[in-house]
From TrEMBL:
Superkingdom of source: Bacteria
Name of the protein in question: 5,6-dimethylbenzimidazole synthase
Keywords: Flavoprotein, FMN, Oxidoreductase
Domain Nitroreductase stretches: 9-173
One family name in Pfam for this protein: Nitroreductase
Length: 210
């Protein structure tokens, strides 16, 4: 696949994992691609915690399921019905959990480029995650970003220092296939907006003349 094909082929994977082991050389390439991401002030504020321990993964999965229940209780009947069909995690089905963290002290005290935008370091971590995701897609792996969790719970589960923020638990592993349509579109939760709906010219809200 070329770059554009990888970008459009990438999926947030849940139910398609096979559980097969990721070859060590493949995992190394994917993590190297993540570590090659650009970062504000070359601070490289990310770390990658590779989680294989079944008891840790099960504890995290149970927490995610509890948070799913919390979210479902906030929905109206129609949305709740749609949500009931959507799988939100593949923690136990995937081969590996990769927790990506943000260390705001990395590169301190003077992080070039962060003095005016405090979140620039967090944005850098998100770029590393995107690199990881695209590299994994190129390698034939699936990735699922789990967001149904409380940061303090994950921090305690993995002994992450207080100053370090857990940004993402990524479920990673070989998959049977990647769906042609994202799950949230397939289940009718939401559709992708046309590009022209989010394009502005010179000022926010200014649309091109027809």
């Amino acid at each position: 696949m070329n770059l554009y094909e990888v970008v459009h082929r990438r999926r947030d994977t849940r139910a398609e994992f096979t559980g097969a082991e990721i070859p060590s050389d493949v995992l190394r390439r994917v993590l190297t691609a993540a570590h090659a991401a650009p970062s504000v002030g070359l601070s490289q504020p990310w770390d990658f915690v590779l989680v294989r321990d079944e008891s840790i993964r099960r504890a995290f999965r149970d927490h995610v399921q509890a948070e799913r229940t919390v979210f479902a209780a906030q929905l109206d009947q129609e949305r709740a019905e749609v949500f009931s069909r959507i799988k939100v995690e593949g923690v136990m089905e995937s081969s590996l959990g990769i927790v990506v963290t943000y260390d705001p002290d990395r590169g301190s005290p003077a992080v070039l480029g962060r003095h005016a935008i405090a979140d620039a370091g967090l944005y850098s971590v998100c770029l590393a995650i995107q690199n990881l995701w695209l590299a994994a897609t190129e390698e034939g792996l699936g990735v699922g970003w789990v967001s149904f969790y409380r940061e303090d719970v994950l921090r305690r589960l993995l002994d992450i220092p207080t100053r370090v923020r857990p940004v993402a638990w990524l479920c990673v592993g070989p998959v049977r296939s990647l769906p042609d349509t994202p799950d949230l579109e397939r289940h009718g939760w939401r559709n992708r907006l046309p590009l022209d709906d989010v394009l502005h010219h010179d000022r926010y809200g200014a649309r091109p003349s027809r």
